[in-house]
Write a sequence for this structure.
C-alpha cells in the first residue's frame, strides 16, 4: 500500500474467474496484522471468491477483530471492535479513483465506519468526484460531514445508527419518523436511503418514492451480519 514501509503488500494473483465479461468481480481493500487471524481472514475470503490481492499486512500489528455478544432472549447482538491493523489506513491512501480499487477504477465502492472518519470521508469524496457509485453502511455509526452526503449513492443505517447520524434519541426513530429521517438524508444529497428495522423489515426512500419491505418470517438464531444490504 505504501512506499514508506508501513505495510507489506499482498501480491497474490486474482482468484476470481474473469472469463465472463459481465461477471461481477469483488475486491477486498483491507489490512490485517501479521498474526494467525490475518492469515485466516485471507483464506476465508478466497474461499468465497473474493480478490485478496489488495489486502495488506501491517508488520508487528494485530488484526482487527470483533467480539459479538448475543442476547439470549431477543437474539439481538452487540459488537465490540478492536481497531488493530485497520488503523494503518490514512487519507492519502484513497486520494484517487484507482486507489479505491486497489490499482483499478471500481464501479462501486462499499464501505463502513470501522476506520477513522476522515479516511471514510476521503473515500466518499474521491468516489463522488470521480463519478463512482458509493454505498456506505454507517456501522458503527459516526456522523460524517454534511458536505459528503451528496457523494453517496446508497446509505444504509439501522434504527440506532439513524438516530446517531441525525442527532436524535433512539426512541425518536420509529414508524412515524422513518420517512422524515430518510428525507433529511435525501435533502443532503444521498440518492438512496435504507433504514433496516430488524423484525419489521426495512424502510427505503429515494427521489421517486419510499416504502417498507417486510422481513422474512424466520426463526432468528443470531443477527450478526444480518443488517447489510448490497445493491
Amino acid at each position: 500500500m505504501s512506499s514508506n514501509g508501513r505495510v507489506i503488500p499482498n501480491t497474490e494473483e486474482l482468484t476470481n474467474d474473469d472469463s465472463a465479461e459481465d461477471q461481477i468481480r469483488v475486491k477486498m481493500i483491507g489490512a490485517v496484522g501479521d498474526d494467525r487471524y490475518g492469515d485466516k481472514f485471507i483464506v476465508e475470503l478466497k474461499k468465497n471468491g473474493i480478490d485478496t490481492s489488495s489486502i495488506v499486512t501491517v508488520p508487528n500489528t494485530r488484526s482487527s477483530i470483533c467480539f459479538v455478544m448475543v442476547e439470549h432472549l431477543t437474539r439481538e447482538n452487540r459488537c465490540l471492535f478492536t481497531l488493530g491493523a485497520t488503523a494503518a489506513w490514512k487519507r492519502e491512501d484513497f486520494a484517487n479513483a484507482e486507489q479505491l480499487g486497489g490499482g483499478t477504477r471500481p464501479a462501486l465502492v462499499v464501505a463502513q465506519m470501522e476506520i477513522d472518519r476522515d479516511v471514510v470521508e476521503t473515500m466518499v469524496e474521491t468516489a463522488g468526484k470521480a463519478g463512482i457509485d458509493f454505498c456506505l453502511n454507517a456501522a458503527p455509526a459516526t456522523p460524517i460531514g454534511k458536505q459528503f452526503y451528496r457523494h453517496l449513492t446508497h446509505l444504509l443505517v439501522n434504527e440506532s445508527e439513524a438516530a446517531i447520524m441525525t442527532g436524535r434519541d433512539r426512541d425518536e426513530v420509529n414508524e412515524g419518523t422513518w420517512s422524515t429521517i430518510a428525507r433529511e438524508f435525501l435533502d443532503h444529497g444521498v440518492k438512496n436511503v435504507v433504514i433496516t428495522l430488524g423484525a419489521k423489515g426495512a424502510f427505503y426512500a429515494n427521489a421517486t418514492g419510499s416504502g417498507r419491505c417486510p422481513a422474512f418470517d424466520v426463526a432468528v438464531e443470531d443477527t450478526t451480519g444480518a443488517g447489510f444490504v448490497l445493491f
